[in-house]
């Protein structure tokens, strides 16, 4: 038996915590675990919103049973088909053979492809409604947050939005499920990391979705990962955060991401950072790409407006970790950054050429000429590194 959390009258949390997986999508570290959230609406008709990762089907089923007893489930709403949410669908259909699965046309294609399900399905269109009894399910298609079938489900009577992955965070739910029951401070930084890792490419679809939701009165946000947001300040905060991140707007601060094998490029990075600090930038975050996980570097680049990248020339290319980072930034269409770059070489420079091409392609605002270092730090190189940090700081200060 479980004591299932009630979020509002008749709305139960039946999600699970995963504290064993190391990497989400086998890519992104989970130092504090993750939750897969699913919700049960117990009305005249019973609806389940999303499921959980297949590894947790058993405990999920026990949670549902604790809330519902032998009562059947009428509907499963699939807001998102990614397997961390759809993984228990096949299993659920075996337990509840008469359940009707609600999704949109893109969902149906995936249900068939992933799980061979073609029967007992209800394909809805944008703004369609399904009446449960006291409550109504209204569906909003919000494609490409971050898959094509993604949608959200709103219950107007309770002003609850089941938002899918939007507004989700890494981090398990330790004790409380609802923000008012837990200390939510640490989740906001994890929400930015989650956004930058998973959703970051899709700024325009997020803006379209926010536009669609703007006329809706929302008192509770039930995402598929992390806390349920109920407190007034928090709901505004998470929506504002998504608005800001999806417009690629950022705070005053500087990320210096660099690679270095023997420390020369690293010393250049140190000088640039010291200069930026001396010129008033308190938020300076340095990432050695071989040490910091890309997940954290992306989070900080989404957070801060200033970006300086440094790389030694490596077999006529960029340092591999820098190559990988700029590929991730390209993939996410990161925009509107104040940009500087620096590089080292010993016989024929290539890193600055590659970084220049990257900056121009991304239409970054290049703050000044790059810093080029042959072999090691000489006085003129130190001078131009200091200059780069100073100009970056001055441009960031003007952002106020
Ligand atoms: C595996 C390897 C490949 C390199 N390839 C080049 C190259 O193609 N062109 C070049 O001018 N220098 C090349 N270098 C030299 C480094 O770019 C140069 O020494 C740089 O200053 C090293 O910076 P670091 O001290 O921060 O590691 C290479 C060095 C290594 C170890």
Distance between the termini: 55 Å
Q: Any idea of the CATH topology of the largest domain?
A: Metallo-beta-lactamase, Chain A
Oligomerization category of the chains in this entry: single chain
CATH class of the largest domain: Alpha Beta
Structure description:
It is a single chain. 36% of the residues lie in helices and 24% in strands. It is of the alpha/beta class and 400 residues long. α6 runs antiparallel to α7 (232-246). It folds into two domains: 5-121 and 128-246, 4-Layer Sandwich (Metallo-beta-lactamase, Chain A); 251-397, Rossmann fold (3-Layer(aba) Sandwich), CATH 3.40.50. The protein is elongated.
Summary tags:
400 residues, alpha/beta, Metallo-beta-lactamase, Chain A, Rossmann fold, 23 strands, elongated, binds flavin mononucleotide
């Amino acid at each position: 038996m479980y004591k299932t959390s009630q979020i509002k009258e008749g709305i139960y949390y039946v999600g699970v915590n995963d504290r064993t997986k190391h990497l989400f999508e086998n890519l992104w570290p989970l130092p504090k675990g993750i939750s897969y959230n699913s919700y049960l609406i117990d009305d005249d008709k019973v609806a389940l919103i999303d499921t959980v990762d297949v590894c947790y089907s058993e405990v999920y089923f026990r949670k549902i049973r604790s809330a519902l007893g032998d009562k059947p489930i009428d509907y499963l709403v699939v807001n998102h088909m990614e397997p961390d949410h759809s993984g228990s669908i096949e299993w659920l259909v075996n337990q509840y053979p008469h359940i009707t699965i609600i999704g949109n046309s893109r969902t149906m294609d995936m249900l068939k492809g992933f799980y061979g399900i073609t029967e007992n399905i209800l394909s809805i269109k944008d703004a369609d409604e399904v009446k449960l009894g006291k409550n109504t399910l209204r569906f909003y298609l919000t494609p490409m947050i971050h898959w094509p079938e993604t949608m959200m489900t709103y219950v107007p009577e309770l002003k609850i939005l089941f938002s899918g992955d939007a507004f989700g965070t890494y981090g398990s739910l330790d004790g409380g499920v609802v923000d008012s029951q837990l200390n939510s401070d640490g989740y906001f930084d994890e929400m930015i990391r989650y956004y930058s890792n998973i959703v970051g490419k899709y700024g325009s679809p997020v803006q379209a979705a926010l536009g669609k939701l703007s006329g809706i009165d929302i008192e509770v946000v039930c995402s598929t990962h992390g806390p349920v947001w109920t407190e007034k300040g928090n709901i505004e905060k998470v929506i504002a955060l998504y608005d800001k991140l999806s417009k690629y707007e950022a705070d005053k601060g500087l990320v210096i991401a660099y690679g270095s094998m023997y420390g020369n490029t690293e010393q250049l990075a140190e000088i640039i950072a010291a200069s930026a600090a001396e010129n008033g930038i308190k938020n300076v975050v340095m990432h050695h790409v071989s040490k910091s996980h890309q997940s954290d570097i992306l989070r900080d680049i989404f957070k801060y407006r200033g970006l300086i990248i440094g790389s030694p020339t490596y077999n006529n290319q960029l340092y591999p970790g820098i190559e990988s980072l700029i590929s991730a930034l390209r993939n996410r269409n990161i925009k509107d950054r104040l940009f500087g770059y620096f590089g080292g070489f010993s016989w024929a420079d290539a890193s600055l050429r590659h970084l220049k091409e990257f900056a121009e392609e991304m239409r970054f605002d290049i703050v000044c000429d790059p810093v080029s270092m042959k072999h090691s730090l000489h006085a003129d190189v130190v001078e131009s590194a200091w200059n780069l940090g100073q100009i970056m700081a001055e441009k960031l200060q003007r952002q106020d």
